[in-house]
Amino acid sequence: MNLKVGFAAGIILVVVTTLTIVSLRNEKNVTDQAADNVRQSQQRSFVMHDAPRPLPEFGFENVEGQPMTLSDFEGTVVLLNVWATWCVPCREEMPTLDALQAELGSSEFKVVALSIDRAGVDVVQDFYTEIGIRNLDFFIDPTMKTTTALGIPGLPMTLLIDRNGRELGRLVGPTEWATAEMIKFLETHIYTD
Fold first, then answer.
1. Angle at the Cα of 69 (from 186 to 103), degrees rounded to 5?
2. Of 30, 42, 64, 165, which sits 20 to 30 A from 159 (CA to CA)?
3. Backbone angles phi, psi at 53, to 5 degrees
4. Distance between CA 154 and CA 74 in Å, rounded?
């Protein structure tokens, strides 16, 4: 009988050990997945430079077709978002940029949504109307020279620019702009820059 009890206890020990190992592996997989999620969210965060970087000169136009440069915003922290109506992620993030401008836009801070649509002003104006953009001003570079000047690998691309027209950091790809975390992050640069 003792042999049977010992054998049963051994089997129970093996089963419990196996279940513990499986459980620990599952926990590790969950932990690994959480770490991957954090890494992915960090990839959607700004890559900030150690020191502000000068930007090359490049031009664009406002809605009236008047030529502009970043120097027109000197003294203001600028969030420059380069986008196009044919870029699906750009289209999806545009309402959040509009909400961000409504929340933080002032003489201290401005979202500059710069379209590189070759089709021109009408396409962008139609898009603004279609999705109800109310707070963003309209800027366009139909020559697409901005992408080369700024070294933009893809759209959307967003640069955080200080009051002196220098790049503080950049974010490649779309993000949710009107979150409490993003607003707090931007406020640290608006009010301490």
1. 30
2. 64
3. -110, 140
4. 26
Distance, CA of 65 to chain centre:
28
Helix ranges (H only) for the chain are 2-43, 88-104, 121-131, 145-150, 180-192
Two tokens, residue 51: 């020191």
Cβ-based neighbours of 167, under 8 Å, separated by 6 or more: 49, 52, 53, 54, 55, 159, 160, 161
Which tokens hold the place of 47? 């890559």
pLDDT tens, 105-127? Answer: 999 999 999 999 999 999 999 99
pLDDT tens-digit readout, 48-77: 999 999 999 999 999 999 999 999 999 999
- Cβ atoms of 109 and 77 within 8 Å: the answer is yes
User: What is the spatial distance between Cα 47 and Cα 66, in angstroms, rounded to a whole number?
Assistant: 32
Instruction: Identify whether the C-beta of residue 112 lies closer than 8 Å to the C-beta of residue 139.
Output: yes
Q: Which amino acid makes up residue 75?
A: G
